[in-house]
Amino acid sequence: MQKGNVKALLPIGVFLVLYLGLGVLFEYGMGISMGFYNIPIVVIFLIALMVACFQNRSLSFDRKLEIMGTGVGEKTIVTMILIFMAAGVFVGTVGRDSAESVAYFMLTIIPPEFSVAVLFVVSCFVSLSMGTSVGTITLITPIAIAVSNASGFSLPLCVGSVMGGAMFGDNLSFISDTTIAACQGQGVPMRDKFRENFRIAMPAALVTLVVILVLSLSQPPAGAVTSDYDLIQLVPYLIVLIGGIVGVNVFVVLLLGIVSGSVIMVATGATAPTDLLANMGSGAAGMFETTMVAVLVSAICALIRENGGFAALLNGIKGLFKSKKGGQLGMGLLVLCMDVATANNTVAIVMANPIAKDMAQTYGISSSKTASLLDTFSCISQGVIPYGAQMLVALAACAELGVGVSAFQVIPFLFYPFFLLISSLVFIFFIPERR
């Protein structure tokens, strides 16, 4: 067993204390809206990197630069960054208006008593296609408010259904930054992670749908919601979704999505030809912070590993969790705690990746299972914490439309994250791992 050095974990502690402490101060002490997201996370990681550089004086600074360069230059990190950029270009190309088309199309053809269930299903599909839970919540929450006003269904129920569906898609989407981070960090094909994840997520989604239907059918709706829609803009999303499921190379899939999206958006007049490249650039730029986080975290983790920090953490986890099943639970709790501290499931996964990789080797856990656990447990916590971007965006959308609702009114209706936790525990302790 490699000897560990607990002091080498100090950079992670510094990051968590600064980020969580400032977040609480901004959000609750100073009353700043979206306080956690007003903190420049890249700057906090730079401070953590400086702390790591000051440790282990037996190594020269040049040697530390070499170690950081090796960590940043790993194939998984480079691939992750390129996929982030390509996914950003894709989202910038196709835009997000088609999400509303899907919602209004289904609300038009399906009876109003099923409208809350429609909100959940549409949010699942939109987030699965777009790869962003926050973007999905931003787009669909105003429709949820319209459904609540027209049908009389509880607004917290409608908002909670949208948030649950958004987290389902975020957990499974091939172009979600959480999926990219988990798969590339563990060196596993996205298709394998999807199959492993699907077995856990689908039962939770089906139970959630049943609960929503039971609650909805117990109250007759007062009216229905209708609006115009245009479904042709869904084609690029379907190409990416189907291509990813059948196992086409992720770069090829995204390229096909970008090309088809460019043609459709220009041909339908949704985007002017002169604006197309600018939209692509904006989409790629939207991935800047996520990319920089991946770079900085990989550099910090390289130094922590060199200094014995991961060995110390792994030895501690092995002392607490003896079996393979316990190792899986420990892996899930690790990323869950990091997400609670950072309020960002992608950052939590990127931070947990190298530790989880060592744990997977120690406990004999497959790479696909590891990637699935990291993504799933981070989405469980991200989907319910009241200071997460998903909750804050949903509440902000309600406030903009003059509707007052609090996080603690919505949390009891976040059925999907809670059922996802139960499903995850069932698959860890009672369902044999597939060979």
Give structural attributes.
antiporter activity; mainly alpha; membrane; NhaC_Na-H+_Antiporter; 435 residues; Na/H_Antiport_NhaC-like_C; 21 helices; transmembrane helix
What does the model show?
The chain crosses the membrane at residues 12-30, 36-55, 76-94, 114-147, 200-217, 237-259, 414-431. Pfam families: Na_H_antiporter. One of its GO terms (molecular function) is antiporter activity. This protein has helices at 10-29, 41-54, 61-72, 75-94, 98-109, 115-130, 133-151, 155-172, 177-186, 190-217, 235-246, 250-267, 273-285, 288-306, 309-320, 324-342, 345-363, 367-382, 389-400, 407-410, 415-429. The chain is mostly helical and 435 residues long. The chain has one domain (6-429). Helix 2 packs parallel to helix 14 (288-306), helix 3 packs across helix 14 and helix 16 (324-342) runs antiparallel to helix 17. The longest helix has 28 residues, at 190-217. The protein starts with 9 loop residues before the first helix and ends in a 6-residue tail after the last helix. The model has no long low-confidence stretch (mean pLDDT 83).
